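Cross-posted from the bioinformatics board.
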Amino acid sequence: MKYVSTRGTARGDDFASVLLSGLAPDGGLFIPERLEPFTPDELAAYRDLDYAGVAKRILTHFAGDSLPTALIDGAVDSALSRFHHAAIAPHLQLDENTWLLELYHGPTFAFKDYALQIVGELIDRQLAAEGRRATIICATSGDTGAAAAAAFAGRENVDVVVLHPLGRVSDVQRRQMTTLPDANVRNFAVRGDFDTCQAMVKTLFLDPKSAPLNFTAVNSINWARIICQTVYYVWSSLKLNSAGPVNYVIPTGNFGNILAADIARILCFPVGQLMLSSNENDVLPRFFDSGAMECRDTVETLSPSMDIQLSSNFERALWMALDQDAAAVSALQAKLAESGQYHLMDAGLTKLRKRFSALACQRDQALSEMRRVQAVSGQVLCPHTATASFAAQQTGFEGTTVVVGTAHPAKFTQAVEQALGQPAAMPALLAPVLNAPERFETIDADTDALRDHLLDL
Ligand SMILES: *Cc1c(COP(=O)(O)O)cnc(C)c1O
């Protein structure tokens, strides 16, 4: 399978190089040149597979012959051995037609593990095969940094640099990143918000002076991550589809998770309607209402991992909706970078509205949804998952609807305590981070200074 950039200039890269670079050299995002639906025979081959089987098959499809099968199989087995639930991604029934997909049984208790554990194995093994080293760089609103640090800590061929917005991640999230003893993990708290951190990563990445660091981006702009997330939509939709296609409501920030669901649907797995939920940072719901993508200042909310104004993966959905017109995508993205806004016109907007819907959930609505779900099912939701559960209640899709559970509630003690009057039970595997010593540097949002500092290490 060949990959192109959403902005058109890079083309013909294979999966292995897409995996190791992350961002296309023209600033765009890699995407397969063509996404063909599976044939009924190809779909049938997935019917009786377990989670690991689905993961191996999907990755092999997208990697083509650019990675050896043995490398993919070994990476998947070794990554999934670190999850703490036999089903990897279990479903919990919340009411007659509503299910919770629990994506928080990995090492750092958020769905980011489902992709990063596998991607970490793939990158380390592929670097070893090529005899190279790389620096993994990632901006985080909380969970990606923890998952990336856990996925790469102690590995031979990589250093990890994680940028998080100072004071804007939960205590547990910060401690998960900063308490790792491994010398190859470096944490920086940036005076700014998540979008600042994400912009710094993009700038560092495209800066010719940082070439010696050999950066690899593992934010969800890395296509390999999207594909690893497609795996759980394939798995889940095949499990639950006895009554027709399965709808998903997905807590959304960077648009990676919901894009992965759309890919499963394009391949013809039984995925029905897709709805995203946001918190008060409602740039995407406003876009779906009006066609105006208009970034405002990020506000702090109960659900910090969704405190984002620039959804980087939306560029891939835009490229598809604009019939792969890379020039049009480049023009819109340039406008967004310059002025913080663009307007999308008729055909593209209509196509996007057919594929996705969107709803914002305010603080009080999330808190009362956490109380409602606990009362009817006993289940404690994290504040991100609560926005999706709220949205699912408002829409009433026909048939089976799955609320995608993106994090364990114990990562967000304050929000849970506000909603329910007491904190969520702390899993034994998470408790040790609360007392371990932390290691991070606080820095200004100065990309040149950070690059020089990293080059000096
Ligand atoms: C990252 C994250 C999200 C947002 O997911 P995207 O793929 O960026 O849209 C939602 N909830 C939690 C808990 C997260 O960590």
